[in-house]
Write a sequence for this structure.
């Protein structure tokens, strides 16, 4: 028994402290922009708004559903949100590790052996996860990994010996894989890769046609939960229209990058290089029959991870989650293979066992060494500045997360002001990219347009280096933007919100001053707002305007006189 757990314990225990420390520190961070967006979407849905109709978003229903679940479990508190997210992420990592034993050994692994490799899986995959900043954790790709990694892990298990167990295994693989499509459709290549490997297996008790049929059944079952959410809480027709029309016609041009641009940076280039190296090694081991054919799901998955990054044309850091997770899983799989090859070596010929222990030690040291690059490990201040709920409410705490277009403390000041100066059922319209303000203020959006890029088309019109829209596409983009603005204006006139908020220096606006940008991008709407609202308070980049008919027409200098048509910076 000891021989079978020494290798995984070496892998796990060498970097264990550093991984635990980074996990703790990451749980003390605030939430970034994207996490805040989905917190608002989930909150609004739980209070009666119809997803995609009342809240316009381009992301799949799985992401919204997961945030609804976390809110129900108390995830409205930022620390608890991180704890829940890290718990689910850690479970998926442990499941992946637990399924690796038995990869080459003919002996059925004991529960203790699987537990040891589960610990190693959690440590190794958590090690790569904590190389991401707080901004890039708890993202759509990492949420999809909750399902993708267990799906791939099930495929690495030895084929079942009975038709019933084989059917259940394949249905589970397909269901867990297909559900990721409803987070991001770019996860489709993973499912295709898994199906290819599944059909390549020869030692399965089911025929290829039977395996294909079970896979299709599993895929349909995987779609049930997100589709049920969409039909119950969302507008399916609007979701389909956004996904099939607006995304390819508008959103794909925003922040667009070519492949050379994406992989030309040091971080993505390093991740891609390690991934390709791991994929080549595992494929070679399968070719020389050191690993079974089902192990091909990892290198093909790495290839799908690269496709996932390329297909999105943006190269954001969090797009690399599946790639780096599968690369880490691939290295761990190689260690499992070597450990199982030599676990039965006689004591008189211990060289193989020494080699396996050396490889396990090397992987543990590799993970430990990488932790010095973790932004969480480097964030020494967070241990004191964020250790209690009281300290996580201080301006100094939020100042450490402020950047060129994200202002968490000012957002909370504005939210507190709105909450105390509007009725509980008030609607608020935000022009910017931070609907988390609405979540913090506990107020719903007046219109579905919670993103500035739906109202200012310049980012889409500009496109990227090798992904610029044609003249015809530009005309469509302008037409869609025009429709958005006039739909918003119609809704604003029909039910004027109590408050309008302009967020300066928001991403994807043309001018740093949000009011100036609104007047430039939405002149008809700006004329109506200027005639019916007045600036009340400014909290840094957050400018709160109150309706002229408000029972609390609060005004603070420099907003002491009616708004001038010529002013664009809040002064007269």
């Amino acid at each position: 028994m000891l021989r079978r757990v020494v290798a995984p314990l070496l892998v796990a225990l060498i970097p264990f402290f550093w991984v635990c420390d980074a996990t703790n520190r990451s749980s003390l961070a605030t939430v970034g922009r994207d996490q805040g967006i989905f917190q608002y979407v989930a909150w609004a849905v739980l209070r009666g708004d119809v997803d995609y109709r009342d809240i316009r978003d381009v992301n799949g229903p799985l992401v919204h559903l997961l945030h609804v679940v976390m809110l129900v479990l108390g995830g409205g508190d930022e620390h608890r949100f991180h704890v829940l997210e890290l718990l689910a992420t850690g479970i998926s990592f442990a499941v992946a590790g637990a399924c690796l034993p038995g990869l080459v050994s003919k002996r059925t692994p004991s529960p203790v052996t699987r537990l040891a490799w589960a610990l190693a899986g959690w440590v190794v995959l958590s090690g790569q996860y904590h190389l991401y900043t707080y901004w890039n954790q708890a993202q759509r790709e990492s949420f999809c990994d909750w399902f993708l990694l267990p799906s791939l892990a099930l495929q690495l298990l030895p084929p079942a010996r009975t038709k019933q167990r084989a059917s259940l295994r394949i249905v589970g693989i397909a269901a867990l894989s297909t559900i990721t499509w409803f987070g991001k459709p770019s996860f489709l290549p993973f499912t295709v890769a898994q199906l290819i490997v599944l059909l390549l297996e020869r030692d399965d008790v089911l025929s290829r046609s039977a395996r294909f049929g079970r896979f299709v059944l599993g895929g349909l079952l995987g779609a049930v939960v997100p589709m049920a959410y969409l039909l119950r809480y969302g507008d399916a027709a609007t979701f389909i229209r956004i996904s099939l029309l607006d995304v390819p016609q508008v959103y794909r041009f925003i922040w667009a990058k070519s492949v050379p641009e994406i992989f030309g940076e040091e971080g993505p280039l390093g991740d891609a290089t390690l991934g390709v190296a791991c994929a080549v090694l595992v494929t070679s081991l399968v070719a020389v029959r050191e690993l079974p054919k089902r192990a091909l799901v990892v290198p093909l998955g790495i290839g799908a991870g690269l496709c996932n990054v390329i297909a999105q044309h943006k190269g954001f850091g969090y797009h690399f989650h599946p790639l780096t997770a599968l690369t880490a899983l691939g290295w761990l799989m190689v260690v499992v293979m070597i450990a199982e090859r030599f676990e039965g070596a006689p004591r008189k010929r211990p060289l193989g066992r020494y080699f396996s222990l050396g490889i396990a030690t090397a992987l543990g040291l590799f993970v430990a060494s990488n932790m010095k690059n973790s932004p969480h490990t480097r964030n020494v201040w967070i241990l004191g500045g964020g250790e209690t709920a009281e300290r996580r409410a201080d301006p100094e705490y939020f100042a450490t997360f402020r950047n060129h277009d994200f202002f968490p403390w000012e957002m909370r000041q504005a939210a507190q002001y709105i909450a105390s100066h509007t009725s509980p059922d008030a609607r608020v319209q935000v022009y910017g990219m931070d609907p988390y303000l609405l979540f913090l203020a506990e107020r719903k959006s007046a219109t579905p347009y919670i993103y500035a890029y739906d109202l200012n088309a310049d980012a889409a019109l500009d496109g990227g280096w090798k992904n610029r829209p044609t003249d015809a596409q530009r005309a469509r983009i302008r037409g869609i933007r025009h429709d958005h603005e006039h739909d918003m204006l119609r809704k604003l006139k029909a039910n004027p919100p109590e408050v309008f908020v302009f967020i300066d220096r928001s991403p994807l606006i043309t001018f740093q001053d949000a009011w100036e940008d609104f007047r430039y991008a939405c002149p008809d709407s700006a004329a109506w707002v200027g005639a019916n609202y007045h600036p009340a308070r400014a909290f840094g980049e957050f400018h709160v305007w109150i309706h002229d008919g408000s029972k609390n027409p609060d005004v603070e200098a420099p907003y002491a006189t009616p708004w001038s048509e010529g002013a664009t910076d809040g002064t007269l």
Observations:
- The beta strands are 427-431, 444-445, 499-503, 533-539, 542-547.
- The chain has two domains: 9-378, 402-547.
- Residues 557-572 have pLDDT under 50 and may be disordered.
